Amino acid sequence: MWSPAGYDTQTNPTQVALDRRTRDMPIDFGTVPSKRQANQLASIYYNENRYEATADIVLRPYFQDIQVGDWVEWNSERYGSRVYIVQSRSIRALTSDGPRNVALSLQERSGDIYAGAGVLPPVIPIASGEPVYLNELPDWTPIPVLAMSDDGRTIAAFRMSWSPFDDVSVTGIQFRWWPTAQPDNVFTKNVQADITMTLLQEGVVSETNYSFQHRLIAPGRPTVWSSIKTATSLASGNEDIEVYLANLNKEVLDRFAEIQADNRQALNMIMETLTNFSLDGAVGEVQRSKMRAEVGRAFAQIIEERRVRVTADEALAEIITLLDTEFDDSMAAVGQRITALSSETEALAETVDTLNAAVGDVSAQGLVKFTLSANQSGVDARYSVAIRGTVAQAYKETGFFLELYTVNGVQRTRFAILADQFVVTDGNQYTLPMVYENGVLKLSGVQISWADISSAVINNAVFGTTNLDYNAVSARGDFSGSGSLALTDPNNVWHTIGTLGIDNPNPSAVMLHIVGSYSGSLGPNASGTFSMRVVNETTGEVSYSFAFSFSTGGSSAQQGRDINNMAISVFDVRGGNTYRVQIMKSTGNIPGANFQVKMLWWKR
Q1: What's residue 124's pLDDT?
Q2: What is the per-residue pLDDT across 178-213, written as a single tens digit (0 to 9) for each?
Q3: Which runs of E-coded beta strand occur in 408-465?
Q4: Of 17-26, 226-235, 255-264, 559-568, where does mean pLDDT reach its minimum?
Q5: What mean pLDDT, rounded, does the chain reach?
Q6: Contacts with 371 (C-beta within 8 Å, 6 or more apart), sequence order
Q7: Which of 22, 81, 446, 576 sits in a 20 to 30 Å window from 311, CA-based?
């Protein structure tokens, strides 16, 4: 025996407020004996009732495989992307001999309809024990990487990575880092506790050793800084700076070209706007006033027009003013346009002021333009000033602009100036200004806390503390050689047992340290000389040489020598130089020779 079961009323106050109605609908489940099942069915019907969108669309024959009951996603230009279920399907042609298109009738659906039909397991509480707090990030490691900045440059950075943890008392993590040689120059960054990686870029320059620490942020209990870890940043390459500046220069020059084009065309655009305004298909009003005087060769006029225009898609309000005077081949004009424009997706506010003066082939133009726009992708604003002077066919332009713009969803700002000479002064006749001209920035006095300088020429410098990188001033190399000469090997001929090639950018002295030993062997009643040397084969200079001689009586004998000496090679050529360790005998044999040569030379 069974009977229908009742179910709970399905409603949601938030959704009722959003929909502005309750969407009440009574439904009976006459064959459902379980209240749990009835609640699940009621929840599905309640959620399904909220999806009301319908559509009738026609698709090309390619979509003939779509069947009734299929779920499809339709990205409508007007209503956006939604999921629908196909309720009916037919094949029809728009013309008698046209292709067999697919006509679909759609009803909105969503997987969220079934979100409330599942059964959630009960939460079983577990008694709390003694808490175990985290003191440091597990598996924390600083890793040097190369990062890409917003402007496309490759810059040195460090990636901090660590393993996930479950200490709920930790609400954040604080990192601090500094150049190991400059412990007072500290940078910090705070991150959330639920991530396992962050990138550190601030204050990081290429090929520099840095020290790192972190501290857990846990309100209610004390935390301490971790032990220090060090890492050396990667080389980002000076060419990246030059590429960045070249790209930036092109971008700014293109922007100035746009501004100067506006400067040249602004007056004509204002005059065209005064004559081309139309109210066709719109609701609006125009108020126009005009003053005009003309005597002989002299002419003057003032035109002011106020207008509003409203359509189904946008609303426009404008004020345009034009002052124009002429006398023979001279003219002067001042124009202003103030615009406010609003639509469903965009708002624009703009003022344009233009000035023009000309006598024959000599003219001057000026523009002040302020534009603000807001849309769904962000906010953009620009304030620009442009001046242009023309004499015959020659012209000169200058100006500046301030702008706020969006790059990959990130808001950025820029201030750019176009001028042969840019000067900043504090107005004091006893201090020298900052000047930028001919591609050179000229300063009289500078205080710098931290600088990354690719190359510099300094005529007179006073250093309080210097910390030159290893191998920044000098370079080093070492090589070894070993070998022997038999009785049958040629006498009085140098034999090479070790070779090293170096790149000396400056033909300065090379210091050598020669360590090793060799021996000579003679038969009865013989005498001989045994020699070794280090020679620069490129120049022929013998940097170091040593020889010893001895004689024997009625039996064979062997003698050896130990070498531990310094030498200087002074005739290196710029660029490649090849050094060799060589041995030679006048008679007898050399049972063994082993040498190591260490070298040091200046890079500058």
Answers
A1: 44
A2: 999 888 889 999 999 989 899 998 888 888 899 999
A3: 410-418, 421-424, 434-437, 440-442
A4: 17-26
A5: 82
A6: 348, 349, 350, 380, 381, 382, 383
A7: 81
Instruction: Identify the helix (H) or strand (E) that includes residue 239.
Output: helix 238-276
Dihedral Cα 12, 13, 16, 21, nearest 10 deg = 110
Q: Report whether 590 contacts 519 (CB < 8 A).
A: yes
Q: How far are the Cα atoms of 102, 114, 472, 494, 568 from residue 603, in angstroms, in the given order?
A: 77, 74, 8, 31, 16
CATH topology of domain 474-602: Jelly Rolls (2.60.120)
Domain ranges of the chain: 13-117, 141-236, 241-436, 474-602
pLDDT greater than 60 at residue 126: no
Which class is 141-236 in CATH?
mainly beta
Q: Which two tokens stand for residue 579?
A: 């050094």
Residue 392 backbone class (left: φ over 0; alpha: ψ -120 to 50; beta: rest): left
Kindly report the pTM of this predicted structure.
Answer: 0.43
Residues in the chain: 604
| Separation of first and last alpha carbons in the chain | 103
Q: Tokens for 276? A: 């081309």
| Alpha carbon distances (Å) from 257 to 269, 389, 395, 401, 549 | 17, 15, 14, 12, 84
Percentage of the chain beyond pLDDT 70 is 87
CB 572 within 8 A of CB 544: no
